[in-house]
Amino acid sequence: MIELEGLTKRYGTKIAVDHLSFQVRPGVVTGFLGPNGAGKSTTMRMMLDLDNPTSGTVRIDGKHYRDLAEPLKYIGALLDAKAMHGGRSAYNNLLCLAQSNRIPASRVGEVLDLVGLTAVAKKKSKGFSLGMGQRLGIASALLGDPEILMFDEPVNGLDPEGIHWIRNLMKALAAEGRTIFVSSHLMSEMALTADHLIVIGQGKLLADTSMADFIQQNSRSFVRMRSPQQERLRDVLHANGFVVVEAGHGALEVDGATTEKLGELAAENGLVLHELSQQRASLEEAFMQMTAAAVEYHAHGTDVHGGAAAPGPQWGPTSEGA
Ligand SMILES: Nc1ncnc2c1ncn2[C@@H]1O[C@H](COP(=O)(O)OP(=O)(O)OP(=O)(O)O)[C@@H](O)[C@H]1O
Is the ipTM of this complex over 0.90? Predict the structure, then answer.
């Protein structure tokens, strides 16, 4: 368990992290999202005592990081995969880390095997590709077999096989009851990996909620219908009080209804349907909807909503009521 209370970081007049309070719980993968410059890396650095908070606290299983005797056995982190000593082999990089945390040398071979780097264990890490460096960083995070793991952009530079591997690794580690905290800019990937989300914007907490609730609360959900008898279908829907939007290509979009209800209504009226499908926005659309006002760096002349069909933004933290 990781607990943040009122965590704040100022750089001069800039508030990078603004009174952040949340908990990262064991047994699930928690995604950490926010637009560029939102304060994710600063927050993660403070969690690992790599940066001092201006105010507020972070507790790792109830303790401050600097009070953990052998921190790698409590919390493993991949923050910057390039932080390894390039002149040392993959094996020696991990061995140094293991020795400083009284971790047996046999564990080095185990984690190299786990991340698929056994064949290049003796090679200097400066010759590693981005993906290999990322795997080495993940190996170092796993070295102490910690209960808590933090990954900043872990799929950066990984090929599809590597992305699949890290996704399953994170899920498996969470299923073992570990606390997994992961940031990523790849929304499609996050949607497949995370169960719970912490979203920040301009250093402030915007959401602390389950993935399903986040998408539901920040996007429009509707049923899409197509029929060769479109006009009659529209009349029937109107007569039954539904709000119908013409979506082009002969499709109608109906808000606030289930596919069951609309299918039955069509059948009662002898209407043929070619399509009846529940549509829900993606995590990416929901994310852009929520963070639109908190984006620090906009590209000029670009619609940041990317055509997301959604009502006006909802502000303030959302919560599962946990
Ligand atoms: N050492 C520093 N000195 C001054 N400002 C800083 C420093 N580190 C970060 N910042 C500022 O703090 C804010 C948060 O930065 P941070 O890197 O934590 O955001 P982020 O969410 O990780 O961004 P990204 O997604 O782009 O990596 C930014 O406005 C950044 O410019």
Answer: yes
